[in-house]
């Protein structure tokens, strides 16, 4: 143990504790901009300066380890003035367009300027000029707002192992960009948006399509329907100040109706449909000795990662479209035909926790079935724009058929959820017996890679689950080295969709855990907890799709990725 003093308060801390952590233990709130625990501890922003009493030195507390006998001051005039000066320097080369910046509400730079009482930017001179990057449908980059904190670089390299962006250039012309000053669309970026989650300013954000959706809603000739992803219902209320994990499914449905959507449906319905199709594909591949392991194909960032880095595994990908796209597809065929709506007048909007879903919707394989994919954050903004008091709305119900789902579908939104949902259905289909213990706890939880063996009839099904692309890479390497599985779930974002790049901020591990608990609570309380028991899934097969894996199903619900 190490003994030190933080502002006269005596403290005992473990060896290796930084001054920032020690100060936190002493109840001191030290400002940081570049710091991300264990991920980006680089001391770049110089806002966390503290003063060492003995030497009189100012040091960055996030990278300075506590030393026995140290006396640290966190709030001297010198500390305050220097932190403030450093923030003013950052602002002097920052495009300050707060009233129109998409990140304004969540901007850590703006919050700190407010907290430090900066009312004037004293140093106004030449600023670095860079072009914006709107080359992808998912992300918007404005390097003129970048403060070079390197958080995005760390998350892209260390967590996701994608390495799409790097600091380039020197001095005043330093910029974080894809290598060789390319645009994101020319880079291996998978559009997961984890960079936008950690960016403390508006330098990387989602591309916003709110105005296009308003336009469609206000067009009387258009029939506009909306689907909501599993993970949105346990995170949306954070945009309105509630605790992560608060379940607002019913209020969200009511708010969507008040926004003017003609029908409010649920991606969960097609998550159940996915289980029917993917489960059948798995059983067929096992029976016919076809390519295994089968990889899930619902996370578009994961698919793009595979296409860039592991194309040799392309035939392991399930041919199932994701639930978002299955929804678009049945909406523009079955739903349109049943309700006599011209496909030209039908607009399908989805609310997703994910920035890559915007890209997925735009892929040529998907035929434009989903017109607009908005993030959870965008929906929060739309609700605010309309002046809707979502938290005090009565709980609404989804519209029938495409809005009814099982608990298995809700848990799609967390790592391990697709696997658990599939196991519930595969067990009953393969054994013909009722599954009594529905909770497959082996595939639950936050571990980066999870493995399980499940006895089903005379088969021992070997499965694995990975979330976050760094973990996906590790698991793929294990498979290359001979690890054998039948079925593997991959999700691009840490935690699965609950930790998606379009979710409300901040995305701390604690917040993600609370969202996860919210999804399991919904599942636990649902009357129907298995996809194949959803009566409307049976109905759509009876009325339209015939049976899982049918010719019609293949036409509408499956695709093929080619490299
Ligand atoms: Fe997900 Fe999905 S569960 S990818 O994580 O499968 O984004 O929430 O909507 O499509 O259903 C995201 C979340 C979805 C899809 C579903 C899947």
From TrEMBL:
It comes from the Bacteria. PROSITE patterns: 2FE2S_FER_2 (PS51085), 4FE4S_FER_1 (PS00198), 4FE4S_FER_2 (PS51379), 4FE4S_HC3 (PS51839), COMPLEX1_75K_1 (PS00641). GO terms for cellular component: membrane. Its cofactor is [2Fe-2S] cluster; [4Fe-4S] cluster. Residues 1-78 form the 2Fe-2S ferredoxin-type domain. Keywords: 2Fe-2S, 4Fe-4S, Iron, Iron-sulfur, Membrane, Metal-binding, NAD, Repeat, Translocase. GO terms for molecular function: 2 iron, 2 sulfur cluster binding; 4 iron, 4 sulfur cluster binding; ferredoxin hydrogenase activity; iron ion binding; NADH dehydrogenase (ubiquinone) activity. It is found in: Membrane. SMART domains: Fe_hyd_SSU (SM00902), NADH-G_4Fe-4S_3 (SM00929). InterPro entries: 2Fe-2S_ferredoxin-like_sf, 2Fe-2S_ferredoxin-type, 4Fe4S_Fe-S-bd, 4Fe4S_Fe_S_CS, Cytosolic_Fe-S_CAF, Fe_hydrogenase, Fe_hydrogenase_lsu_C, Fe_hydrogenase_ssu. This is 2Fe-2S iron-sulfur cluster binding domain-containing protein. It comes from Iocasia fonsfrigidae.
